[in-house]
Amino acid sequence: MPAKTTSPKSEIFVTMGDPAGVGPEIIARAFGSMDHSSDVRFTIIGDKDILDRALARQGVSGRGNVDVLDCWEALSGVEPGKPSKEGARKSLRSIEKAVELMMAPGDISPKALVTGPISKEAVAEVSCGFTGHTEFLQKAYGADLVTMAFVGDNLRVVPVTRHIPLKDVSSKLSIDLILNTIRQVVENGWLMTGVDRPRVMVTALNPHAGEGGRMGTEEKDIIGPAVLRAREIYPYVEGPIPSDVAFYKALGKPEVIVLAMYHDQCLGPFKMLDFTNGVNMTLGLGHVRTSPDHGTAFDIAGKGIADPGSMIRAIELALKAVRRKS
Amino acid sequence: MPAKTTSPKSEIFVTMGDPAGVGPEIIARAFGSMDHSSDVRFTIIGDKDILDRALARQGVSGRGNVDVLDCWEALSGVEPGKPSKEGARKSLRSIEKAVELMMAPGDISPKALVTGPISKEAVAEVSCGFTGHTEFLQKAYGADLVTMAFVGDNLRVVPVTRHIPLKDVSSKLSIDLILNTIRQVVENGWLMTGVDRPRVMVTALNPHAGEGGRMGTEEKDIIGPAVLRAREIYPYVEGPIPSDVAFYKALGKPEVIVLAMYHDQCLGPFKMLDFTNGVNMTLGLGHVRTSPDHGTAFDIAGKGIADPGSMIRAIELALKAVRRKS
User: Fold this and answer.
1) CA A95 to CA A140: how far, in whole Å?
2) What's the CA gap between B195 and B188, in Å, rounded?
3) B240 in contact with A at a CB cutoff of 8 Å?
4) Are B318 and B114 in contact (CB under 8 A)?
5) What share of chain B is helix, strand, coil (3-state, %, to 5)?
6) Which of B144, B154, B88 has the alpha carbon at shortest distance from B117?
7) Chain B contact for A253, CB < 8 A?
8) Which of A121, A136, A118, A123 is nearest to A20 (CA)?
9) Which of A51, A96, A288, A303 allows an S-S link to A321, with CB 3.0 to 4.6 Å?
10) Contact check, Cβ <8 Å, B265/A268
11) What ipTM does this complex have?
12) Are B42 and B65 in contact (CB under 8 A)?
């Protein structure tokens, strides 16, 4: 029993996500298929019964040296594939518990968090103002700035602005916001790309990068100056590059991160190619948080057909983060 | 000499584009490699000497039954790879001449236009307010609405708005604009997809399609109602679909056209995959206009290394258009 005798050097918490979604089964399959070494302690935050049922349904015989922390009372009326307020409340509860454990002082460090898929719409109904893990964690950690980053097989992308109307993007952009986002990306560049000095391609906001000001001035007034200042300390930043050139140049280059000005600018190209393998990361919390880049998939939950690939990659990225630090 | 004895049923004009760019050589290579049947008459509008020199440089022995119309005085000081005001003026002149010939009454119909690459920036310097072929042709034809469409191996996309600052997109969108663009796309759907009833996926404007109004209201107020009205006459239209879902769903489906709300929304994904093979089309002129979806590439002009693939596809699409109509 070597797993019990070696003391873990780092710790990863995994929230189960919505108990009625595919979270339990992809976590079960991920831990059923992954090779666990004892240098990292895993704790799944959710419900032992549900996880064990998911394991049984998947035909997975064990979950390695992984603990489960029951963080809620026995569930009533939550079944796979059936979204409910109860399920939404529980998924929020598991995130709250994770934050509590992540922030608790303890002898194991570093830590990382992997979150299972939740239904944002359902959680927003039981918790007014909830817009997603990223914003929730930012508030819970009291972080001035967090960055949402995506890592896939084909692209690595970061939007500077996130969940706001498109028409508000221009007024939300500032030199400081872009500079600080570049800083968080560069600090986590190795984690996203595997190289110490990733190339950061900063996109333009307007068609043809504004074409000298004829189609918008944000490139001249905001993005260009931010890139110039970033290059003083980090010469591998380039831009502003028109959207319809940046992704073409970045594609298939593992050392490139595209820093985009808004959500759909980078998530259109990213999800087109990396929908099934992408990992969503939150940077700026002090701990890395990763997550599979897909939703609860209520329509296939409990059927044993959900692809655990994205969850496995999310766990692997969390492992990479804690092993780099420890 | 069957080519001379069969009278052509339709006519395609090809503008040479900037004489210092790759236009002459990709046209030379395209006509050197294509199989010409005599049912279509081709006229290249530009400069016979330059074209013949380009043919010689490419080692192409002939240009089939293709006429060249010298549309300008002998050029002075225009060399491959060297942009100049002279070259910009000539490229504009060739487009003006093409419009004149396209609109002239005559016994050959239908007609189509293929335009060679020009430098928009250079033409704008000699002709104030020039923003591109699409807008120039719209004005020259007196068309109320024209649509810019892109056809590639992987995607087929259409932006509803084009060369305007991103922050002005929301105020430019209207139910009528979206409906009329859908109409022009549907009318040319076969040309873009090869099927009579293409699926038209209309994108949302905001992240997550506005998420019920929490991140923007254009989906509820404009895009949704436009799609509903379009479906009354054309049930193969669907949307609004979030950007980060639409391209994933459309990829690799030749019968799908993505109708996007703005330039970079569709050209980011499109050019990422179809940069080297894409064709740009203008719909709504009465005649189809096609063009390779790349620029003058001054840096490689005259070196004999420019890829004629996109020009060949532009000519093939024009051929498809006139043969369908004749």
Assistant:
1) 10
2) 10
3) no
4) yes
5) 45, 15, 40
6) B88
7) no
8) A118
9) A288
10) yes
11) 0.91
12) yes
User: How many Å apart are CA A151 and CA A258, to the nearest integer?
Assistant: 11
Report DSSP letters for B15-33, one per residue.
E---TTSSHHHHHHHHHHH
Q: Under DSSP, is residue A121 helix (H, G, I), strand (E, B) or coil?
A: helix
Q: Do A267 and B243 touch (CB under 8 A)?
A: yes
**Measured distance CA(B214)–CA(B207) in Å, rounded:** 10
- At position B241, the amino acid (one-letter code) is I
Instruction: Please state the separation of Cα B146 from the chain's center in Å.
Output: 11
Of A56-60, A130-134, B174-178, B282-286, give the range with the top mean pLDDT.
B174-178
Residue A230 has pLDDT above 90, yes or no: yes
Pairing of strands B256-260, B156-159: parallel
Q: What is the distance, to the nearest Å, from the Cα of residue A98 to the centroid of all Cα atoms in its chain? A: 15
Position A4 confidence tier, pLDDT thresholds 50, 70, 90:
very low
Rounded Cα–Cα distance for residues A90 and A238 (Å): 44
The residue with tokens 């690799």 is: B252
Report the C-alpha gap between A210 and A219 in whole angstroms.
7
Closest C-alpha among A283, A113, A256 to residue A184: A283
Residue in chain A nearest B268 by alpha carbon: A244
Query: For the stretch A145-176, what's the b/e string if a residue is b when 16 or more beta carbons lie within 10 angstroms of its beta carbon?
Result: ebbbbbbbebbbbbbbbbbbbbbbbbeebebe
d(CA A175, CA A284): 18
Whether the ω angle into residue A207 lies within 30 degrees of 0, i.e. cis, is no
Cα dihedral A130, A131, A133, A138 sign: negative
CB contact under 8 A, A216 and B166: yes
* Overall pTM surpassing 0.90 (yes/no): yes
Do A261 and A246 form a contact (C-beta atoms < 8 A)?
Answer: no
Whether A294 has its CB under 8 Å from any CB of chain B: the answer is no
Non-local CB neighbours of A52 within 8 Å, separated by 6+ positions: none
Kindly report the number of other CB atoms within 10 A of residue B232's CB atom: 8
Q: What's the 3-state SS for B147-206?
A: EEEEECCCCEEEECCCCCCHHHHHHHCCHHHHHHHHHHHHHCHHHHHCCCCCEEEEECCC
Least confident window among A24-38, A51-65, A188-202, B258-272: A51-65
Model confidence pLDDT, tens digit, residues B263-282? 999 999 999 999 989 999 99
Give the β-pairing of A66-70 and A111-115: unpaired
Q: What token pair was written down for B126?
A: 């000699």
The Cα–Cα gap between B121 and B88 comes to 9
Residue A247: strand, helix, or coil: helix
Cα of first residue to Cα of last residue in chain A, in angstroms, is 23
Overall average pLDDT of the A119-147 stretch: 90
- Average of per-residue pLDDT values in chain A: 90
Q: Residue A325 above 90 pLDDT?
A: no
One DSSP character per residue, B52-107 reads HHHHHHHT-----SEEEEE-SPPPSS--TT---HHHHHHHHHHHHHHHHHHHS--S
Give A37's pLDDT tier (boundaries 50, 70, 90). Answer: low
Q: Which of A274, A325, A299 is nearest to A151 (CA)?
A: A274
Shortest CB distance from B215 goes to which of A165, A206, A272? A165
pLDDT-derived band at A21, boundaries 50, 70, 90: very high
Dihedral, A230, A228, A258, B300 alpha carbons, nearest 10: -140
Label residue A1 by pLDDT band (50, 70, 90).
very low
Here the tokens at position A27 are 């976590």
